[in-house]
Design a protein that fits this description.
260 residues; alpha+beta; Jelly Rolls; Arc Repressor Mutant, subunit A; 10 helices; 9 strands; 46% helix; 21% strand
Length: 260
Amino acid sequence: MAHIHFVECDTSHPGNFVIDVPEGHHWLLVITRTPAMFWVNGVLKEYPAHSAILYRPQQKVYYRASTGQFVNDWLRFEATEAYITESPLPFGVPFGLSNPEYCRKLLELLIIEQNFSLDCKESSVDLLLRALFNKLMESYFQDNITPQYYKLLKLRTAIQNNPGEYWTVSMMAEFLRISPGYLQSIYKKTFGISCIDDVINSRVRMAKEYLIHNAQSIGEVASRCGYQNVEHFCRQFKRITGHTPKNFQKHIGVSPIKET
């Protein structure tokens, strides 16, 4: 069981902000949105934005603003669940977050649950905390989190949310203000797939949904997924799925719409 005492997002503090608690009372999770100084193993050290640090109950807590305004998200809670109490996460040692916006959205949902007495509040809080700790563990065991990584993640999210846009390597490189060659190199190294293949896979994934629901003709699906040429769409679709769009519909038991 978990009980939230307080949760807050985008809390802004002045440059002289300091938290100094020699012996903490509850579990505390702090996620930085700007650089900050943390007391770790007897040394005060600066850590970058998008760092997370988990303090166990009765653990010393000391952190402060680094330079200028300090912004953070934080969660103070009690817990007896093993996924928290027996977590492999380090206590009192910051680590980079692989998807800070995802974690932020979970905290925003926890704020809603905390502020409203909803019928399923207890189970919803537990599910949200489990998801949050899953993301924290994914981050902790990922070793390629750099400032450049967050820019690439933003690009990849834009691609997967809007695969029908006119994505080219040059356009994506401009998005990050780096050269096309460098983008192709670091994108593949970071995500294990080229940026263009990521676009194609995202388009085909979207196309499959449209074809399953049988709402448009093949030509309309191709257009909605960012293809100006139906034949090109069909070739790429078959390369990824092993089926032409029409055969894919037949394979899943959907009657294709006749082209006009």
